[in-house]
Amino acid sequence: MADTITADMVIHDVVTKFPATVKVFHGHGLPCTACAVGARESVAGGARTHRFTPEKLDLLVQDLNAAVNGEPISVAPKKAPVGRGVPLTMASSEPNRKIKNVIAIMSGKGGVGKSLVTGLLAVSLRRQGLQVGILDGDITGPSIARMFGTKGQPSKSANDGIEPLRSKGGIKVMSMNMFLEQESDPVVWRGPMVSSAIKQFYNDVDWGNLDYLLVDLPPGTSDAPMTVMQSLPLDGVVIVSSPQMLATMIVMKCINMVQQLKGEIVGVVENMSYFQTPSGERYEIFGPSNGTDLVGMTGAPLLGTMPIDPALAALCDAGRVEEYYAEPYEVLAQNFVSTLKIKR
Ligand SMILES: Nc1ncnc2c1ncn2[C@@H]1O[C@H](COP(=O)(O)OP(=O)(O)OP(=O)(O)O)[C@@H](O)[C@H]1O
C-alpha cells in the first residue's frame, strides 16, 4: 500500500497500516473503524454511508494524511470506543491488553451443551494455572453462575468497576443471574437491552488480567450473538455442535454468520459424541461423529469430541462443575491453548 492515503482504500487496511488514523476517523464522526463493515468498506464508501459531502470527504482524507505525517488536523482527534466492533486483527494487536484472549463460544441451536463446554473448558484452563473469566452472554437464559455455584451479588471494584464473582477454583464469573432477586425470575428484555447488558459486562466489569475470557453466547444468530461479534474485541469463536445437529442447516447458519461478520472460527467441539461404559465400550447414541465434516465446513481444527456423562449433568445442577475431571476436557483445553498459540 502506498504511503499516501486515498479515498478508495479499505478502512481496515488504512488503520492497520497507520494506527494514528483511528482517532482521525472518529474525530470526523466516522465510526467505521469500530464496525465490522470497515473490514471491506473503502474510506469513500464509509463517508457515503454516513452522508459526508464530497468536501467533507476531501477534508477527512487530507487529515488522515496529515496525521500520518505528524501534522495538525482540522478536528479534535477522538479515541475509538473501547470494545466496539474493533476488527479482529486490530483487537489482537492492541498493546497492553489486560485480557489476552477473548473467545466466544457459540452454537446454532440451544441444548447442545455450549454452556457446559464453556464451563469445563474454563475449569481445565484454570487447572493449568491460567487466569480465566467467563462472561455469560446468555442474558435471558443464564446458566453459568448456577453451574459454578457462585452466590451473592457482584460488588464495586477498587477501580470503580464491577467486581466479578469468583468460583471456588478462582474463575471470574459474570452472569445476569447474579442481579436477579430469585434465580427463577425471568429477564424479559428486548434485543437492544440484551445487547447493552453484554457490552456492560465486558466494559464495566473489572476483569483484571486474564489469559482467557470465554464468552458464552445464547444459541442462534439473533441480536445477542451479533452484538458480541460486532462489539467485543473478539479473538475468535469456538463452535459447539453435536452429532445430530450437523444434519440440520443450523450449524451452517451459525458458521455463515461468523464468516459474514469477519469473525474467525478458531476451533470446533463436538459434544455428546458418545457414551462410554465403565468397561470402555463406546456407544454413539446420537449417531456417528461428524467431527471431520465440521472441520471441512469451518476450516478450523476439531478441538475435541466430548462424551455424554450423566454424572456431569448432576454436578452442574448442584453448582459443583469444578469437581468434575475427565480426560477429554483436559485434551480439549490443551488443544485450545495450542491452537491459539499457533494463531498468534
Ligand atoms: N456431555 C454431556 N453429558 C451430560 N450432560 C450434558 C452434556 N452436555 C450437556 N449436558 C446437559 O445438557 C443440558 C444442556 O446443556 P447446556 O445448558 O450446556 O446447553 P446450551 O447449548 O448452553 O443450551 P442453551 O444455551 O440453549 O441453554 C444441561 O443440563 C447439561 O448439563
TrEMBL record:
Residues 5-57 form the DUF1858 domain. Belongs to the Mrp/NBP35 ATP-binding proteins family. Keywords: ATP-binding, Hydrolase, Iron, Iron-sulfur, Metal-binding, Nucleotide-binding. Binds and transfers iron-sulfur (Fe-S) clusters to target apoproteins. Can hydrolyze ATP. Gene3D superfamilies: P-loop containing nucleotide triphosphate hydrolases, SP0561-like. SUPFAM superfamilies: P-loop containing nucleoside triphosphate hydrolases, SP0561-like. The keyword Phosphoprotein does not apply. It comes from Tengunoibacter tsumagoiensis. GO terms for molecular function: 4 iron, 4 sulfur cluster binding; ATP binding; ATP hydrolysis activity; ATP-dependent FeS chaperone activity; metal ion binding. ATP binds at residues 108-115. PROSITE patterns: MRP. This is Iron-sulfur cluster carrier protein. GO terms for biological process: iron-sulfur cluster assembly. The keyword Cell inner membrane does not apply. Homodimer.
